[in-house]
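User: Hi! I'm working on a homework problem where we have to compare a predicted structure to a textbook description. Could you give me the structure for the chain below?
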Amino acid sequence: MPPALSLVRMDWKVWPPAFSLVRIDWSLLLSVLLLVHCSSAIIDTKCEPIKVEFCSKLGYSTTGMPNMLGHQVQVDALSSLITFYPLMVYNCAPELLFFLCSVHVPMCTQLPPSGGGSEQPQTQLIGPCRPMCERVRDKCTPVLEIFKLSWPTTLACEKFPRMNKENNMCMDGGNTTSGSTDSPAGFNTGLHTLQSINPKLLEQAKELSKDSSKLNKLDPHLKMFLETNMYKNIKPAKGYSGTCSELKYSINYHYINKTDECVPKCGVDIIFDAEDKKFAEVWLSVWSILCFITSLFTLFTYGLDTSRFKYPERCIIFLNLSYNILSVGYILRLIFGAELISCTHTQGEPSLLVRQGLTPTPYCTVVYLIIYFSSLAGCVWWTLTTVTWSLLLFTNMDSKKLESFSPVYHLVGWGLPAVHTILVLLLYEIEGDELTGICLPGQQTEYGLLTFLIIPYSFYLGSASFFFLSGVVGSLVNPGEVTRKLLARIGIFSVFYTIPQICVLASMVYEWLERPAWRSQASGTSIVEIFMLRISMWLVVGIISGSWVLSSRTISVWKSFLTSCSWNQSKPSTPIFPKVAYRPAPTTSQTKETALTMKNLGKLSSERSSTPRGLPYMVEDNKIII
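Assistant: Happy to help. Predicted structure tokens:
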């Protein structure tokens, strides 16, 4: 593999946020882009100034959307244009930039009204001619072959007009010398629209340049990337008359008249790419299965010895039950798949992600009920743990007295999450998540995220922390052996519970603050590792809570249970029979009156006291009659 290949095919995730758009692989680019217009088309739109600085100094200053690749706004065209950056750096053809710009931001001209009573001027988009495309293709194909790539099918030259005609206009270029090796006009200026590059990539480029003279010219451009910082403020063009033009990748949204909202289409990549979603599914599988197994073990241990755990420790068991239910919700998502859970299908409209105001599917509703209810229940039961612990210390209640209030604990522990869950359901605030495919409130709208996730989680976490600190003070005021042991256990568990919950809450706040920019700004990109951290921290509490039952008593309880199982029982021992003494039968000289016969049975009953000890019998003809 040539050194250049390792640089140009480098994973674009190491680039800063401005270059997250460049993560698109060439093969993905070829499959996603669709040529929806011919080279010259009369369309019902308005000409607008070119906002892509790459193409702002090429001889024309206005363009129109959608372009020849189906992009609805100029920011989408820019994100596609950046994917050709390796070819621009190599400068394989002097007309390359002009050709790419004529496809992504074609020239826009206004024609006189066509007549027929219409006074509105017509708008025509003018793209490249076939000869220019062929010249660029012939010069750049050898460079692509070095990287084992082929000329993009969406830029097939057969799709463009052979020559510029009045009824089929196109741009032939031809204003640059074929032998020129300088960067195309406007290229160096266009570089200033990009944000700074990762310094590690610069160091790798310098190392590669020592081995290949072809890469020497990468250095000035990379330095220019490193020194510029103007790309972050670029925003989508406002000239497009479409209803979702303010959003990045607006072609991936569908406008709903009922809710006056732009809803993401199902299965498209807007904030996260396909690789992120695939990794998130694997990551979710590992953590949800681990949480289910460990929490189930804790519940079985409690079931084998229910008298072992008294309040406030018993609240930990119900917290563990909440996380077991939570893991079941995630496992159901893995079984049914993201599309079946988070997508809704309406007749006459494309498949869309479930959003506020739309009716969720039954699968989405079930997964939402399980995950949202159980996650809030876990928060409430941890709050009840700290509350009962404080009561134990400040009111001198014993465990039996605390247990007498258990109906109240269950009413609060399960009732409050149920109220939250029903309220969200009635307000149609359930939304599908693009990354994980689950259904929860606030997965697309900032209002839902703040109201139904951030605020409740903050309230319960703050309340639990307050009562925990109160319990610490109480244990210091009323020291004792039992108090000290319980303080150590609850204190350690509090650390392992609070830190993950803070991570989950912080990731939600981060998403709430940054998500509008991810959807509307070209430089907006998410840090997917933060979302992976949220998944693990959300489920790790269910794994850690299993440590509450780890002790020698747990081992003995399980050992006793396993030995009592039928498949592990030993063979039954031989029964012990009582000892029997035998005496010889009486002789025939014994009178029949003192013996038992069927006839004198009644007489024997009255004379039983005089009968010899033992069973009555008689011998008649050497036979014993009972």
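For your comparison, note the following. DSSP finds 20 helices and 13 strands in the chain. Residues 592-625 form one domain. Good luck with the assignment!
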